[in-house]
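Table S2 (continued). Query chain:
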Amino acid sequence: MNSEEEFYDAETGLESDDSCEVSFKDACIYESKQTVNGKGPSENGVWERRTTLPAPMFSRNDFSVWGFLKKCIGMELSKITMPIVFNEPLSFLQRITEYMEHTYLIHKACTLSDNIERMQLVAAFAISAVASQWDRTGKPFNPLLGETFELTRDEEGYRMISEQVSHHPPISAFYSESLNQDFSFHGSIYPKLKFWGKSVEAEPKGTMTLELSKHREAYTWTNPLCCVHNVILGKLWIEQYGTVEIVNHSTGDKCVLNFKPCGMFGKELHRVEGHIQDKSKKKHRVIYGKWTECVYSIEPKVYEANKKAEKKSGGDSKKHKQEQSTGGDDADEMPDVQETVTMIPGSTLLWRVAPRPPHSPQMYNFTNFAMTLNELEPGMIGVIAPTDCRLRPDIRAMENGDIDTASREKERLEEKQRAARRERAKDEEEWSTRWFQQGNNPYTGAADWIYKGGYFDRRYSHLPDIY
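Corresponding output:
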């Protein structure tokens, strides 16, 4: 069986409009401490992270996507080895780490005494986790069994470790924690994907768990569904849709978020709307915005009054039923971009997306944060585990613009993985994970992978040779 790979993150959307700034002036804004231009502190000789990749992305114009994918209609894509032309130079384990780009939202939530205000920021964090995916037309490399990735960001106050814990099915487990023990964020992800002729549908499996130690709270949720349009013909674009429920298992509070499908005329493209309710189902706040731009919170009565005023003015006079096309030769044209999020007076701005660098389109549409993930900083070799993604030769070659070498290395690593699996089968040996173990989520009871600890003790002599 060939290596399993995910076509799950090839996602696109629209650029955040600077005109959104105009509506911010009337809103109460939670302050953030984001890095500027993807750089960390540069004073006193501290390492300054890169803001670009070693080489721009290659052209995909000479590759026939249809020639490859026509045999895959209706199949689960995790069972198929994908050509390297589909990839971006990151492992899926590194892609998971992009959930942490807006960690300042969690830090802020830890400082708040009101449980509803904390839930607002947890909701914003859950929404922000998918923001980095818009316009990402490449897919991450599927991690090899036993592959790991660690990320420590002292200036953002957290560290994270992830491991590929299963190959059939492909499961990635991760665990992150604040450096001062304020929170932990962990989960395991098993995406299921299918190709439907013109689109790829991804059904995320796995639970996200956030624990705030000071408040003795635990929140859980799952990610929305997504659909990548025009994988054969036309411009790639994505919609995320479905209901996401964030549950505070300590208080009984719940945030119900509706990631809206765009519909035939695209009026709801990228929009998110929901509410926060307590255990008695009383609504306290309404959440609205776009996962590609910004998210606001407002009192429910004010929101409903605004909606009624809109209807009277004819703003919602037409309702259009969403239509999905799964056949035919024409592209699913991306709906015209609607106006940016209109702030309702009295709203609180919870989060807004960080601008991407001007050269992002030539760099796989990476964010500033993503640009730093595969960088080998001085002193890393010999400190990070030998199974770390940054040491993978195929990803490194692709990042450097050497596609032929990247393709050969990818094939070599996949064959090495298959040979190792055959040896284990011959010896009747079971694969043993290093940093995570199978168990049940303590709050939902669902199957999960639990961090065993010990990674940062730096004892790596027992790790497999996967590269």
